[in-house]
Amino acid sequence: MSLSKVIETARADLGYTENPPGSNRTKYWDAYDPKMQGQPWCVSALWCWFNWAGEGKAFMGGGQTASCSMLLRWYREQGLTVPVEDVQVGDIVILNFHGTKDTEHCGLVYEVVNDTFGHLVGVRTYEGNTSPSDGSQSNGGMVCDKDRLKSQIVGVCRPQYTPDPQPVDDVTGHWAEKSIRRCMERGLLQGYPDGSFQPDKPVTRAELAVILNRLNKEDDLK
């Protein structure tokens, strides 16, 4: 899933720190624009995560910016912002930690937190250039997993991720559908990565050996 790839790419960078501390020098500027070394890097980290995951067009239409305000403005102009209450996984949240509507920081939402009545409490995000707990939350020098309150969100950008391909269903309506589904439920047969089963395709010796092995294991459990 393309959205998942972006989130996984961000998660893999948790704990990454600028080097040397306090310098704002990172691998993200190396990829984005080395001449920007020394500038705050929360947006450039997002840009890298999207591009490294193959979803560069979902980030500002494939454009570049290192500014939270420009990022939010672009999504607004494209009609790709949503009310805070409608935030969802994969959105980019623009944050402020001082009780104003100014754009201060940003993060990638990987979980939405609601109360028992279904009302939004906040979000969990992956963010660059922040701090684990103490220290600056908008220029802290590290990639962190953060809990952000609804009140800290001043804008929600909705990237347009590449749609996932629909799985192929070539079992429904086939003359052997019932038998195929029974074997799949028992774990004797599996489909192909694209979701197809290819029921009329000849079985290879290797595939037959796997099926017989699974049958033997099933008998051993009886």
Overview of this protein structure:
About 30% of the residues lie in helices and about 15% in strands. By secondary structure, it is α+β, with helices and mostly antiparallel strands. It folds into 2 domains: about 1-155, Alpha-Beta Complex (endopeptidase fold (from Nostoc punctiforme)); about 175-220, no CATH class. The protein has a 5-stranded antiparallel β-sheet with strand order 4-3-2-1-5. A hairpin with a 5-residue loop joins strand 2 (about 105-115) and strand 3. Helix 1 crosses helix 3. The longest helix is centred in the C-terminal third of the chain and has 16 residues, at about 205-220. It is elongated and about 65 Å long. The two termini are about 40 Å apart. The model has no long low-confidence stretch (mean pLDDT about 90).
Notable features of this structure?
endopeptidase fold (from Nostoc punctiforme), alpha+beta, five-stranded antiparallel beta sheet, 2 domains, single chain, 5 strands, elongated, 222 residues, 6 helices
Second CATH tier, the architecture of the largest domain? Alpha-Beta Complex
Average pLDDT rating: 92
User: How helical, in percent, are the residues?
Assistant: 25-40%
Structural class by sheet pairing and helices: alpha+beta
Q: What's the CATH C level of the largest domain? A: Alpha Beta
Q: What form results from the Cα inertia axes?
A: elongated
* Main pleated sheet: 5 strands, antiparallel
Unreliable stretches (pLDDT < 50, length at least 5) are none
How far is the first residue's CA from the last residue's CA?
38 Å
The fold-level CATH name of the largest domain is endopeptidase fold (from Nostoc punctiforme)
Strand content is 15-25%
CA radius of gyration: 23 Å
